[in-house]
Structures are given as C-alpha cells and as structure tokens.
Design brief:
Elements lengths: L1 E4 L3 H13 L4 E4 L2 H5 L9 E5 L9 H13 L5 E6 L3 H9 L4 E5 L3 H17 L10 H7 L10 H14 L5 E4 L6 H10 L8 E5 L8 H6 L16 H4 L4 E5 L6 H13 L1 E2 L8 E2 L3 E6 L3 H6 L5 H7 L2 E4 L10 H16 L7 E2 L1 H9 L5 H15 L4 E2 L1 H13 L14 H15 L4 H8 L3 H11 L4
Parallel strand pairs: 1-2, 1-3, 3-4, 4-5, 6-11, 6-12, 7-8, 8-11, 13-14
Antiparallel strand pairs: 9-10
Helix pairs in contact: 7-8, 11-13, 14-16, 15-17, 16-17, 18-19, 19-20
C-alpha cells in the first residue's frame, strides 16, 4: 500500500489512478495530520509526499512531515515531490532520509519508476546492515566472474552491489584510483535485468567541456561547422542498458546543470535537433573525489550528488584488503606470463616474495599491483619470483619513469611488448645478439632490424 500526501484533491486522484494502473494499491491524505494517522498500517510500504501544503511554499511543513515519518517508521521509503525551482528542498529532504525526489511537472513513467526502484531496494535488503557473506555464498547468487577477492571489506561491497543490481537505482561508486570501480560497475550491469543490452563507459574527465553536449547527447548533421553527419551520443548508445559515468567529479559547473536535468527529467535533445529523446538507461557513476566535500565548497552541485547517489558503494584501498593481495598477485602474474612471458618468465611466487608483496602500501591499489606483476614478467629471469627480484623490479620502477612506466597487461601496445621482450632477452644473454635472436625465434638480421626500430643499443 502506498500513501499519497498532497493538499490538491485532483493531484491525489490522478496519482491514485496512475498507481492503480501500475498495479499498486494506494490511499490519500490531504494534510500532514491525516498522513500521520495512516502510519500504523501494517501494509504501508511507501509514502509519496508533496513538499508544500495549504499555500505554504517554504517547504518547512513538508520537511516536518518527513521528519515525523522517519521518526516513527525509519525504514519506510519516502519519495518527495517538489517543483524544479525548489530542488534545494529536495536536497534537504534527501539529507533527512528521503529515498528519492521527483520534480513537477512529472512524467507518469518517472513516478512509477521511482516507486518501483524504492520498493525493490527495500525488498532486496539493500539498505539493511547484515553480516558479511562468504565468497561462495555470493557466487551462488550472483555472477561475479572476473571480480577477484575474498577479503571481508571487499565482500561487503560485492554483496551490496549484487543486491542493488536488480533495481534501477542510481549507484555512485567511490574509491581511490585503481581500486576497481569500473570492474564493479560492470558486475552490477552483468547482474541486472539489462545485462543483455549495452554497457557504455564514459570517462567524463576526458571530454572537453565544449564537447560535452555533442558527446553525451549527440548532434545532427549541420549542427555546427564540423558536424558532417549525425552522431547518436553516449546516452543514445546506452539505450536499454547501463551507462557508466566515470570521473563524474570532473564535470565543470555548467555541464553539471545539464547532467542534472537529463538525470532528473530522463530526457535529452541532440545538439541542433528539436526532437526530445527519452533516456532509458541505468546510471552508474564513479569518482575518486570527495564529492560531499566538493558540494560543501561549491565545486560540485549538491542536487546532482543526491541524484546520482541513491546507493553509495565505497571500494576499499588494497592496503585495507590485505587478504586479497595473494589472490590478485597470482592472477596477474599468470595472465602476464601467458600474454608475453618467455621461457624464463616467472610463473610462481615464493613465500618470501608474497610476504613482501603483502607488506607494500600499493598507493596505486589493484592497478599498481597489476602493473608491478606485468613488469616482473618482463624483467625477471627465473621461474619463481622471489623477494630479491621484487626489490629489483620496484627499484626499476622508482628509478625509471615511475611506477607506471609499464602499462598493465592488455593495455601495452605491440611495439611496447616487443621492445620489452628484446631488452629482456639481451640482458639475459649478456648482450649476445645471436643467442638473444635464437631465444626470441628471430634471425640475426630480423633482430637487428628491430633493434634499429626501437633504438636499442647493443
């Protein structure tokens, strides 16, 4: 049963009909006092509440009602209805515990979607505290293939990710660079009803502010000088699926407003077009910034933060999930060796090396560990990686171009891989070109051509 609170009888009747058509039962209340009288109903599942009553436009009466509801029924989801010009009221309401907000004038589909999402979140237990499940329990319920980890700090994140995946709730994934935000976003999509539809990844930090509308909303031919053909844009590409807005904290203020309107109204218009398109995509955002701090200092819109932050997932640093270092290290070493390891590439990690790996700070988190193991495969010359070799690999990174000198497996170009393997072979054979060429399966002439190409001295 859904309680609708609005002082306009016509609005009450309209919402009751809409919810009935969507399969929900509802009751109406014209004022806060009448609304509070219904709170003891055992079948009450949600409140849909307007923020203004009886010509009072400050919203204080609505906030007081929300506070009273949360005090008596803390777990009861409340969706607020407010005018677009009063979004600050909605933000205050979200801070006070509201589940979502809808602005007037609303689309019927928008109201129904918000109601279903809030009810699904309650049904999934996404807001409930619970003990940490085992990895085996999670793998029985969800598809987390390729998401490595057994540390309780990480499993709690995966548990929440799995439970919210079946809803359309917006998710904000926070955490330091390299903690795996994109991987978790992909896992949410893979466990959602949208799994067979597109998963579109957008690095907002890489889009120039002046190109934001064209990249995200698309454009029509002739919309501007270089628009020689129609371009669908990222939101259109995500139709029916999920759009992952990485580095959302890098949006400039003007484009934050545009993003808020799209996420609020679920509509957008390609540049140069008068045709309005509907946004039908699950939105997952990510950032390594402190958006609450950014909202406090005015560099990030607070209303946008609450629009993308219905569910928050914070990924722990690798230093906070020490139990996972061994699992990740073995995986990365095996994968690197399979991609470009030679006959002397390490395929195992000694106990002293594993202890060394587990003792490191890894400020670059999982990504840095992956880079380190990629580098180890390229420079080590024994089948087992030991602590001494780890020290040499780390020193190489520190004294060269930095710890990120080599990209992780899968992001190195073929030229980078070829150059690294040639340099390794030459070191192993103490500069003997003939033996290095033989170990690489090349003729001397072919190796000399590659030495010239990569400017490698012998």
């Amino acid at each position: 049963m859904i309680l609708i609170v609005d002082d306009d009888p016509a609005v009450l009747h309209s919402l009751e009909l809409l919810l009935k058509q969507a399969g929900f039962g509802s009751i109406g209340a014209l004022d806060p006092k009448s609304a509070l009288a219904h709170l003891d109903r055992p079948d009450l599942e949600l409140v849909l509440q307007d923020m203004n009553f009886s010509r009072r436009t400050t919203g204080e009466e609505g906030l007081a009602l929300l506070s009273a509801i949360k005090e008596r029924r803390p777990g009861l989801p409340v969706i607020l209805i407010t005018a677009w010009g009063s979004i600050d009221l909605a933000v205050r309401g979200m801070k006070a515990g509201a589940a979502d907000f809808v602005t007037k004038p609303w689309e019927n589909e928008q109201i129904v979607r918000s109601v279903r999402t809030a009810l699904n979140l309650v049904a999934s237990g996404a807001r409930d505290a619970r003990s940490c499940p085992t990895r085996e329990e999670l793998d029985e319920r969800y598809d987390f293939e390729g998401v490595l980890g057994r540390d309780p700090a990480f499993l709690r994140v995966l548990d929440l990710a799995g439970r919210v995946a079946g809803t359309d709730a917006s998710v904000l994934i926070t955490g330091d660079s390299g903690t795996g935000k994109e991987i978790v976003a992909g896992a949410i999509h893979r466990n959602s009803p949208r799994r067979d539809l597109p998963f579109v990844k957008v690095n907002l930090g890489a889009i120039a502010p002046t190109l934001f509308e064209s990249e995200m909303f698309g454009h029509v031919r002739g919309a501007f000088t270089d628009a020689k053909r129609d371009h669908g844009g990222r939101f259109a590409a995500a139709e029916g699926g999920t759009i992952f807005l990485d580095e959302i904290g890098e949006l400039d203020p003007r484009n934050q407003v545009k993003m808020l309107r799209v996420l609020q109204d679920r509509t957008f218009e390609p540049v140069g077009s008068s045709v309005t398109r509907r946004l039908d995509a699950r939105v997952i955002s990510a950032t390594n910034r402190d958006l609450k701090g950014a909202a406090a200092d005015g560099s990030f819109r607070e209303d946008l933060l609450y629009r993308i932050n219905l569910i928050a997932l914070h990924l722990p640093q690798l230093a906070e999930r020490r139990q996972d270092v061994a699992i990740l290290a073995r995986h990365f070493l095996s994968r690197a060796a399979a991609v470009y390891g030679g006959p002397d590439a390490p395929v195992a990690i000694s106990p002293d090396a594993m202890h060394w790996l587990e003792s490191q700070a890894w400020p670059g988190n999982v990504r840095e560990l992956e880079q380190f193991l990629s580098r180890a495969v390229l420079v080590a010359d024994a089948p087992t990686l030991d602590a001494a070799a780890c020290e040499r690999v780390m020193a190489m990174g520190a004294s060269g171009a930095g710890r990120d000198a080599l990209p992780p497996v899968g992001s190195m170009t073929m030229d980078e891989v070829e150059k690294a393997m040639i340099e390794k072979a030459l070191r192993h054979h103490e500069g003997n070109v003939s033996r290095a060429a033989e170990s690489l399966g090349l003729s001397r002439a072919a190796l000399y051509r590659r030495l010239a190409k990569h400017r490698i001295a012998t």
